[in-house]
């Protein structure tokens, strides 16, 4: 570990020198790339330097203890310094292990979230709207920008499906744990007997793909235009503004009809398609990793039931980590940090454990 840390410090110093070079400063793309790496290495190097300072303090305290002879006061002082240094070394070592966990390369990216009603008909569509509201309120609390890319609303005020982007620092790092099946248990307003119904909604969280990292051959895209359909909206069924993109090699299909402009719909559809293709490539790469080496918490199969929202009991249960919170309305109002923090901590612990097994 410490050999790796020394190499990291050397790389940090190398980048620091390069960033002051006029040639690098004049190259915007290279400067931005190096600055991003410099920023990512800074907390590791700072913590490593704290560690080396603590080791020096420990060695100094040992020398003082050996040289103190029969001086009781000096020995006491040296022992106290030695104990303090050893405590700091142990504490910083654990912090360094966490900092050295390989970062998800997508963590700093914006996201595209796709929510679809599953089993449960109208009730599932209504809950899809509830989840959209929850994520929107969470994004607003973090000052992230939301943009609806495509929506298929129902007459009752739900969504058969809705896709939207969230732009903001660390959006993917916080929301990546939301992919999977969300289950709701409640009494629908239309239920006269007061029976609890169970419905499901699927959520997919995709890191937004940049054009430079994923090139799509225009010849591989089939474009169809058609009249938009759905609940409400003056432009519905009036013009052929809706767009359907089919990626021929993979068979992926994306529709977008939220905008009045065909061109805007095509841009938004391409944004979704690019992110789905990146997600597909990432999933294929992850599938090559042996199952005993996987350590992510719930960022895998979308068919996995990850969470239950039980209205009669006012509780939310995340099945991946066995967490139950009896503040359902609080969470549905966008106060998600307690769940996300717990998932991130469990993910971190799993990765630390996987590192120890290697």
Structural description of this entry:
By secondary structure, this protein is of the alpha+beta class. 47% of the residues lie in helices and 20% in strands. The chain is built from nine helices and eleven strands. Strand 2 (145-153) and strand 3 (159-167) form a beta hairpin. Helix 1 crosses helix 3 (28-67) and helix 3 (28-67) packs antiparallel against helix 4. The protein is flat, with a radius of gyration of 26 Å. Residues 232-237 and 288-296 have low confidence and may be disordered.
What's the Cα radius of gyration? 26 Å
Specify the number of helices.
9
Residues in helices, as a percent range: 40-55%
Determine the N-to-C terminus distance: 13 Å
- Kindly report the average pLDDT value: 84
How many E-type strands? 11
Taking strands numbered 1, 2, ... along the chain, how are they ordered across the largest sheet? 2-3-1-5-4-9-10-11
**How would the global form be characterised?**
flat
Order of helices and strands: HHHHEHEEHEEEEEHEEEHH
Q: Unreliable runs, pLDDT <50, ≥5 residues?
A: 232-237, 288-296
The amount of beta strand, in percent, is 15-25%
Major sheet summary line: 8 strands, mixed
Q: Output the structural class.
A: alpha+beta
């Amino acid at each position: 570990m410490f050999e790796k840390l020394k190499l990291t410090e050397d790389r940090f110093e190398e980048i620091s020198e390069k960033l002051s070079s006029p040639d690098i400063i004049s190259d915007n793309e290279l400067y931005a790339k190096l600055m991003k790496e410099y920023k990512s290495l800074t907390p590791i190097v700072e913590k490593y330097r704290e560690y080396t300072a603590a080791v020096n303090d420990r060695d100094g305290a040992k020398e003082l203890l050996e040289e103190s002879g029969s001086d009781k006061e000096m020995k006491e002082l040296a022992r106290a310094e030695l104990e303090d240094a050893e405590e700091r070394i142990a504490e910083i070592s654990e912090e360094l292990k966490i900092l050295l966990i390989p970062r998800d390369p997508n963590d700093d990216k914006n996201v595209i979230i796709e929510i679809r009603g599953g089993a449960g008909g109208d009730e599932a569509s209504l809950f899809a709207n509830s989840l959209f509201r929850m994520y929107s309120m969470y994004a607003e609390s973090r000052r992230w920008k939301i943009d609806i890319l495509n929506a298929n609303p129902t007459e009752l005020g739900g969504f058969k499906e809705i896709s939207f982007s969230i732009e903001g620092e660390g959006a993917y790092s916080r929301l990546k744990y939301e992919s999977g099946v969300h289950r709701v248990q409640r009494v629908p307003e239309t239920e006269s007997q007061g029976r609890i119904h169970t419905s499901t909604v699927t959520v997919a969280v995709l890191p937004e793909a940049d054009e430079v990292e994923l090139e799509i051959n225009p010849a591989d895209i089939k474009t169809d235009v058609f009249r938009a359909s759905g609940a409400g909206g003056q432009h519905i069924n009036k013009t052929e503004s809706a767009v359907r993109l089919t990626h021929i090699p993979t068979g992926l299909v994306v529709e977008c009809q939220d905008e009045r402009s065909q061109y805007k719909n095509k841009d938004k559809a391409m944004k979704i398609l690019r992110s789905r293709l990146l997600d597909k490539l990432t999933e294929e790469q992850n599938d090559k990793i042996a199952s005993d080496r996987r350590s992510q918490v719930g960022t895998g199969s979308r068919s996995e039931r990850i969470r239950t929202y039980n209205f009669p009991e006012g509780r939310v249960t995340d099945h991946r980590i066995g967490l139950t919170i009896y503040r359902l309305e609080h969470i549905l109002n966008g106060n998600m940090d307690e769940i996300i923090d717990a998932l991130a901590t469990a993910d971190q612990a799993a990765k630390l454990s996987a590192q120890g097994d290697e």
